[in-house]
Amino acid sequence: MKHYLLAAPLLALALPASAKTLNVAAGPDAQTRLQEALILAEPGDEVVLGAGRFVLIDGISLDVDRVTVRGAGMDATVLDFTGQRDAGEGFRVTSDGVTLRDFAVENPKGDGIKSKGADDIVYHRIRVTWTNGPAASNGAYGIYPVESAGVLIDAVTVSGASDAGIYVGQSRAITVRNSVAEANVAGIEIENSRGALVERNFVTRNTGGILVFDLPGLPVMGGGNVLVRDNLVVANTTPNFAPPGNIVAGVRRGTGILVMANDGVWVEHNTLYDNPTAPIMVVAYTQGFDDARYNPYPRNVTIGANRVDRGGTDPQLDGAAQLLAAFGGALPPVLWDGLAQPGATALRVEPGLAGWSLNLTEQGKGLGGGNPGPLNVPTPDRTAMLTGVGAPAALEARLHP
């Protein structure tokens, strides 16, 4: 009884106060009123944005756990950053358990919505758009969670990003699904991350469709265990408009799905059409690096059964004319650069899915150093199919409160 009496007041202190709703309407002083609501919100609260256009001149931020920010719909509630004075992201989140849903972000000077170190975050029915179309002056990323555990991105739409429309970096336990990435340099990027599921997305009119890769020199290394399935990757033919020096400035126009320097990636049941450099490309990292933790080679990449047109009809590669002549006017759908870590299996491909290899002999030597020929790699090992991918199941409940 004594222990119970001591515990009771402590329990009362731990219980949250009743959750409240903070309503914010569009109109004059929207910047001040919206940021004030985000500051005053407490864990469990909901910030509800009314229909209309919120004209904002600076970025906004949220650093309170377990807050929901909800609008009236991705075409009804618009956070308009066209007149933004600073060059940062439009909306920045640095707290855990946050749900962002049913609103749009237009024309931020930097990234659209960036969440950093924000675990268990949900993006649902969010639109990020640069309304002037593809341009190097647009922000780099539309949806941008980084350094997070537990990320669910569902039914978002992003267009015009000068790096990636939907980017997840240095994170784990990730789902990206039911979303549209259109007219970005890269549609969807999974970078230095583990346990990602990328499924049922429509990826079109980007320079490159879906990219899964690792880069050196980042705080979190060792990406892998990524499943890319049931996506529609179509007509990724937009010329590359990334600013010079950006890593994705090297992505070739017409790349469907690219896997670079990653471990344990499974690509299957996707539909790839009209990706004129390569429907599917598997390559090593090509630049120099001094990070001893980094492995520049693809390892254990499996290309399973995918629905692929011939693709490869206008490859942005050295010696394209000679390659097209050698392969009868179109390159096979799977391209491998031929580089592998000694003693490791770089690539497995489903029987019947044609491929070719550049047969490079040295990492970073360039396309001119190859001896192209038909692909000769093992077939998929079904006993090694991926497990443990995707966002935590608990995040699903927040889609239907």
Short description:
The chain is mainly beta.
Task: Write up what this structure looks like.
This protein has 401 residues and is mainly beta. The chain has a domain at 21-103 and 111-118. It has helices at 2-14, 30-40, 320-326; strands at 21-24, 46-49, 52-55, 60-62, 68-70, 77-80, 91-93, 99-106, 113-116, 121-129, 141-146, 149-154, 157-159, 164-169, 172-177, 180-182, 186-191, 194-199, 202-204, 208-213, 224-229, 232-234, 255-260, 263-268, 271-273, 278-283, 299-303, 307-308, 334-336, 347-349, 355-357, 373-374. It has a 20-stranded parallel beta sheet that branches. Strand 1 (21-24), helix 2 and strand 2 (46-49) form a beta-alpha-beta unit. The two termini are 38 Å apart.
Which radius of gyration do the C-alpha atoms yield?
23 Å
Taken as a percent bin, the fraction of beta residues is 35-45%
How many alpha or pi helices?
3
Record field, number of beta strands? 32
Average pLDDT for all residues = 93
Class inferred from helices and paired strands: mainly beta
> How widely separated are the two ends?
38 Å
Largest sheet: 20 strands, parallel
What shape does the CA trace take?
elongated
Low-confidence sequence ranges: 1-15
Helix content: under 10%
